[in-house]
Each structure stands twice: as C-alpha cells, then as structure tokens.
C-alpha cells in the first residue's frame, strides 16, 4: 500500500479568464506526492505555483477553471467529486496555510474560535477537545503564552505569531496533506527562522505530507525532500533536494541558482563632505518614541544600506529625512546646511534634492495616469520644463531605465509588469534630478531575477549620475550586493554602523550576528546546523 | 469597556452640541419670517393697540437672544409653549402624536429590517442567480415609485377588497392587535419604500468581502456557503449595514408625512403639515426639534453599534 501515492495529479490544465477569452495558467503539469513527503514548489510570481497548490484541494479561484487532467487524492477523484464531498475533505484531510496570515484570519473572531471551527463542523472534536488541542499545538508551534494567546483577536497578535497560529490551525484535524503557500515570505529573516523550524518539526512529528510553495530557494532547501520547478505554468524539472541543489540540469534552474551573482565593485572610503547628514535624530509617533539618537552620513556616489527587522525604525528615519515626520530632537543637514524639520517649510529646491522610491510600485503609481505624466509631473514641477523640453526629458528618463520610449510613453501602469513598474518609480524619482534617492525596500516585492535587474540598474544610474542612495531593506543578500556603508538598526536605535566589509566581518554586535546568521543559505542542512548551534549556546 | 463608555460620552456631548446649533437655526429661521407671532395670531384686522398689547403679553419686545433662551429652557423641560391656533399646550398635542409616529416607525422597521437582511443575505449567497436578479429588480421598482403611488396601489388592492382599512382610526384606548390591524397598510407602504436601500447595502457589503483572503481561507477549511456568508462575511459587513438601517429608521420617524396624509394617520408629520398651513409657528418649531433629536440619537446609536461589532476598535493592542 505504501506505493499508492497520497496525491496524484496527471496532465493538469487550468485556465484563467481574461475578458471573454480563457488563457492557460497551468499547461499539463504532473505531480506525485507520497504520505509524509514534503515537495517544494518553486517559480517566480505568475508561474502558477499557488494555482497548482489550490488545485491539489480541488479548488480553483474565482475566474479560474480546471480544464483538463486528473487530480486524485487518496483514491478520490477530485475533479468529478461533488462540492459536498470536496468540502468534507478540505480542512479535515487537506489543509491550507496562506501567505499572509494577517489577511487570512477573520478579524471578527478570536484565534481559538477559528481554530475550532473546522474540527467542529467536520465533527471530529467537541469544542472543549478542540480548545485543549489548540493550546497543545500552540505550544508545539512555540507560541508565547499558548494557554491564552488563542483568546486574542488577530490584530492583537504579531505577524510571525499569526503565521504559526495558522499552521496550528491547519493541523487541527490532523490532515494528511498541507499546502503551504509562501508562509514566510512576508516575515523578517529572524522571525522566518522560528516559523520554518516550527513548521518543519510539526510536519515531521505528525508525518504530514506537504506541498511547500515559495520563490526562495534557500528556504525550500531546508523544508523539502524533493523540489519541483515551474516556469509559466510548465514544469521545468524535478529532483530530490540534494541532487537539485548540487546539479541542476535545466538552463532556467541554473539561472535561478546563479541569481545572486551581482555584486557592486568595492568603493574607496569617502573623503568628501556628506550630502546628507543625520545628526542625533530622535522622533516619536504621538507619545510613542520610535527613533533614539540616530546619526549617520550619506555621501555622493555611495550607497548606505539601512538594515533591521520591521519596526526597527528604518522607514521612520526616511520620513524624518524627507520632512514627513519632524523629529523631536536632532537635525538633518543637506550640503552642510540644516533642513527645516517639516517638509512644508522647505523650499522647492530643497525638496527636489531628496526623492523616494517605494516598496509597492503597484500602489505608488497613479493607475489612471499614463507614464508620460507620471514621469513628466516632477520634471515639470521641479525643473520648470514645458512642451518639447519636457517631452525630451521624459524620453531620456525612459531610456535611462531601459524602457523603449516610443513603446512605453503612453502606457498606463496596469499595462506593465512588476519590475517595469518599479523602473517607472525610479524614473519618477530621477525626473526631479535629485542628489539623494531613498529606496524603501524597493526590491522586496519582486522575484529574485527581476530584483537583480533593478539592482543592476540602480548601480548603473549611480555611476552615471553620482547619486547618493539610502537603501532601506531587511534583505542582507541585497545589502551584500550593493552597499558601501551599512547601518544596522534595532528598536529605533543604531546598533552598528560602518563600511560594509567592516560590518560584515566578525566580531559582530550581537544583533548583527543574529541577523547575519538568520539569512537562509542554499544548503539543505543549514537550518538544522544553525538551530543546533543556537541550542548549544543557550 | 472604559474606552466605549468614553466614546459614548463624547458622542453624546457632540450630539447635544449639534442639537443646540439646530435649535438656533430653527429659532433663527422663524425669526426671519415676515411679521411676528402677534400679527400672525391677530391677523390683518388687528389694530396697532391690540398688537402692542399682545406683543407685551407674549414677551415679543424682549431682544431675540432672551426669547430664544426662554424658548430653549422651556423646551428642555418639555414645555414648548402654547399653540397659536388651538391655545392648547404644545407638549400635550405632540405627546400622543409622537407616540403614534413611533408606533408606526417601529411597526414598519419590524417588518422591513428582517426582510431586508434576509433578502440581502440570500441575494449575496445566490448572487447572479434568478433570485438575486428578481430581488434586486423588485426592490428597485419599489423604491422608484413615489410613496403615495405605492400607497394608493395598496389601497386599491388591499383596502378596496376589504381586507384592511384605508383610513387609520386609532386612539390611545385601541388594543395592540387593533392598532396593528388598523395601521397595516401604512406600515406595509413604508416597508416597501425602505427595504430596497437596506437590502442592497447588505448584499453589497457582503459581496464586497467575498474576495477577502479570510473568505478563501474559510472555503478551504470546507465551510459551507451559508456558513461563510453568516459567520465570516456578515460580522465584518455589519458597520455599513447598521448605518444604513439607522438612516432609514430616522426616515421612518421624520419623513413619513406623505404616507400619514394618504392614510389619515394621526402622526407628527401630519401635525406638522397642518401647523404649517395654519402658520402655527410654535408647533412647527417644536416638531422640527424633535425630528432633529431623532436623527442625532439614531446616528449616535449606529456609531456605537458599529464600534461594538468591530473587535479592532473594541480591543486595542
């Protein structure tokens, strides 16, 4: 009986509605999963990973339909099964863990009620049983205060804790199969480790089979027994984890593996006066202090990477520099002269010098405006360009960001890919001809291949225009690639700063050490070794 | 709970302030009318002497702020003065009428609110089906006709055939069953008029949430469609629904003049219309103030209930 797979998908086709037509999303994928086995599913966004994962539950999102192939779960044909039959499997024998736990928990109910819901209506437990079981699983997932955390509402619990609570919830009926859909993508590296370790333990303990969807190769290397790679709805290759890491066969897989090849040439130490100098800045939101005595410099032609987990004050520092949040103490100097704390008191020339690029290019661009206006607006406002000169400027900017002007100038943001949108964000910042550009997590929402393109572009522009970058990120791989100087922040204060080589070389401040060691490596034993090492220290 | 009590206190203070401003507007508006109370009472045949005597008697020679203060303090104690037309205390005239109006509003609300919620939930559950389309089209037609037209159609169908009376004759002595029977047609008319708005908001608020990740999560747990709508979507959709219900209840109290006139229902709206016709300014002022209070109180209730249904506002941190 051990030979019968738990889940068997043959020649699966899924289509998505685009207006009147149906376009293929999954084009003939096979998948076999045995009991207790963990399969890693890798691909960039739009490759069809989530769609395939949901299809394993016999589920297609609104606007999608399963158009061909077969899906058999433990002898049950999910394509021909009735809705009622499929409902009786979902949550009980196949469970799902979503990418954003914060959005996937219902804000109106307590965690433990949401935990108990599936066991109750599938009639596998009584409420009392489910509640005591929840506390046990919360404990196994290493949630703080497991006896009480369930009685909180989702907004009272942090993102990393919610993700663990969601994994516990998926375990409630002790399913045979769990689909993990990028469960740690939204988390900081330090939080990610805890969630990864907890997920791996619990899956092993209950011998649950799992499909682990991610775009992070290093993460999947820790979690999966086998890895399958998807590209635009088609399978590229599949092998067990160690083989795949050691000897990828397909060209696409090799390009995924090689993506971190980019590294900026080492710059000599800065000798000139800094363009921007942050001096002893302390700031608060209302009465809550968020920044404590933060000081650092940004030099022309150099990149300062500001790293730290979410809530460490990285973006708040950017808000102080741009004048959106006047500090309670300290000052920001531009070219040696103090800037007014509030942006409303700054001159247009001062505002022009410092531009922002945002994390979510999707929401940072007005969807109703063509690129001509999105990029032209700051050029017109700050530089006073009009008519022909303005058109030339917009075209030159599009050239700079490597988008063909004739093909793109009249497009709307909705007609661009994620990476192209971020390029437009860059062009808009450059349109004002600034000296300083603040990049706030500009690559976090992008796939690794696209990320690398954006980093290369930023580096090229810096060389051509002599720009100073303040690069906010929680991704240390990005820091290694592009930074000249590094500022490490925690709880609103700087814990370490200096040239990249100096910060990345031991000895580290304890928090820097924690951050550095938490970055997943492409080695299947990395997580086990790290956990063992941390265990032995305590 | 402390935060909620504080919020209620704040909103009550704000509501009192709103009413104060409204009372100034009401008083000021009647001041702007040509002529004064004395000439309105005595009519065109009055001699200057009798006018002066009446003005002195009514205190009309005092400056406006003094008269406003006297009117406001009286109103706060339930003394709205004396009707110009009947010379009876206005409070006595209004008391019974207000009771009738509230009775009709509650009657209509008791029919309309459950009907609207059930129809809205079912329409969301079976969206884009025949049921959804028929319910939407029916509700839209009902709201599109003028109230008096709906009222006359009902009279034509249900009163002329003798099932229900077309004239409402109720007194404080009538039994509850009698009152319900007598005022069925006006209540039904109002139900038809207000249901559409509430039903469509219920449907839209629920459907708006159906694309949320937590709804997908509920589906992937194997929850049934009815359970998804009732347990996962509805609690998060309550705030907009409650607000629309409050607006419609306010309408049921203050906006039913036409329906009261058609069915000769002895409510506040009719009294207001009569008083305007008779230039009985004191009564109009009193009723306007009561209507404003109804609006303020219902909106306050809606705000508090919306907050109570949202754990993110109830339990911070």
Automatic annotation (TrEMBL), chain A:
Protein's name in the database: ABC transporter ATP-binding protein
UniProt keyword list: ATP-binding, Cell membrane, Membrane, Nucleotide-binding, Transport
Keyword Acyltransferase found: no
Domain ABC transporter stretches: 7-257, 276-516
A Pfam family reported for this protein in Swiss-Prot or TrEMBL: oligo_HPY
Membrane topology, as annotated: Peripheral membrane protein
Family (UniProt): Belongs to the ABC transporter superfamily.
InterPro entries per UniProt: AAA+_ATPase, ABC_Ni/Peptide_Import, ABC_transporter-like_ATP-bd, ABC_transporter-like_CS, Oligopep_ABC_C, P-loop_NTPase
One Gene Ontology cellular component annotation held by this UniProt entry: plasma membrane
Matching PANTHER family: DIPEPTIDE TRANSPORT ATP-BINDING PROTEIN DPPD (PTHR43297:SF2), OLIGOPEPTIDE TRANSPORT ATP-BINDING PROTEIN APPD (PTHR43297)
Broad class of the protein's primary localization: membrane
Gene Ontology MF term list: ATP binding; ATP hydrolysis activity
Originating organism: Roseinatronobacter bogoriensis subsp. barguzinensis
GO biological process assignments: peptide transport
Subcellular location: Cell inner membrane
From TrEMBL, chain B:
Protein's UniProt keywords contain Chaperone: no
Membrane topology (UniProt): Multi-pass membrane protein
InterPro entries for the chain: BPD_transp_1_N, MetI-like, MetI-like_sf
Gene Ontology process terms (BP): transmembrane transport
GO cellular component: plasma membrane
Source superkingdom: Bacteria
Classification via Gene3D superfamilies: MetI-like
Subcellular localization: Cell membrane
Predominant place of localization: membrane
Keywords: Cell membrane, Membrane, Transmembrane, Transmembrane helix, Transport
Claim: 4Fe-4S is one of the keywords in the record: no
CDD domains: TM_PBP2
Domain ABC transmembrane type-1, residue spans: 98-302
Sequence intervals crossing the membrane: 12-30, 102-126, 138-160, 180-199, 237-263, 283-306
Family: Belongs to the binding-protein-dependent transport system permease family.
Protein name: ABC transporter permease
Provenance organism: Roseinatronobacter bogoriensis subsp. barguzinensis
